[in-house]
Structures are given as C-alpha cells and as structure tokens.
Design a protein that fits this description.
Layout (H helix, E strand, L loop, with lengths): L2 H16 L6 E4 L10 H8 L8 H9 L3 E4 L4 H5 L10
Parallel strand pairs: 1-2
Length: about 90
C-alpha cells in the first residue's frame, strides 16, 4: 500500500476519534496518481491485469470525507477518461 494512503487512514481515524472538525484534501501528483486510476487504466498504466488494488481504500477515504484531487500534470490523462475519481463501475 502506498504510504500516503496508510497515513491518510491514520489521520482520518484520529480526526474521528477526537470528534474534530476537519477538511482533508489529498493531492496526488504525477506518477503517484496511479492509485486513483480505474481498473482498466490501472492495468494499462502498470502493465498488469489485476485491476487497481487501491480503489477500495481510496473510495473508503472519500466516503469518510477526504477530498481527492489530481495535480495539473495529470490533467491530459484525466481528460482522456483514463483517470476518474470517484471510480466508475
């Protein structure tokens, strides 16, 4: 698991335990953006056929209020429909 996802889980858990108000925004930059790919794009990008193993983790974080953003360097791929958050079925 990418360290960023693990640390985001820790932060979100701490916020919930403390009953604190927060706004958590995770910005994925360039090559670190692969956890945000849908299965087909992840397979193509990583040259595998298993789908995105991080999709559920990212989706869970989003359901808990984490805002996921992609940096501008990823926009050409995002606009081509290769990257989408949240993940389409």
């Amino acid at each position: 698991m990418p360290a960023c996802i693990f640390h985001l889980q820790l932060i979100v858990n701490d916020i919930a335990n403390w009953k604190a108000k927060s706004q958590v925004i995770a910005v994925f930059h360039t090559n670190a953006g692969h956890p945000t790919l849908h299965d087909q794009a992840y397979n193509h990008d990583r040259n595998i056929a298993t789908g995105n193993p991080y999709k559920k983790l990212i989706t869970d974080l989003m359901e808990r209020g984490v805002q996921v953003e992609l940096c501008g360097a990823l926009q050409p791929r995002s606009m081509a429909g290769e990257m989408q958050t949240p993940f389409p079925e």
